[in-house]
């Protein structure tokens, strides 16, 4: 059974370092953020910063793609951004829907164009 799951100590370390240490901050954020008004200026600012960071990452990946993404033609990447933005607008500003749509376009374009 140890051959299937690898070293038990490594899994325990991964659970502790990757999951449990982050879970403390999630619970703390839930406790503290439970009473914050969603339309407050602070949360509007936080959402704006998160969107700006996502836009920066997308721009960096679009201009100089890393790894296997470099094999995807430029027009497929630019088209994925356009489709992702359109879905973002149509889906009532859902970042999740926009990102998923863009990813699907990249995958379909890579598969179709070879």
TrEMBL record:
Please give the superkingdom of this protein's source: Bacteria
Q: Which InterPro entries match?
A: Brnchd-chn_aa_trnsp_AzlD
Keywords assigned: Membrane, Transmembrane, Transmembrane helix
Keyword Transmembrane among record annotations:
yes
Transmembrane regions listed in the UniProt entry: 45-63, 75-91
Kindly provide the name given to this protein in its UniProt entry.
Branched-chain amino acid transport protein (AzlD)
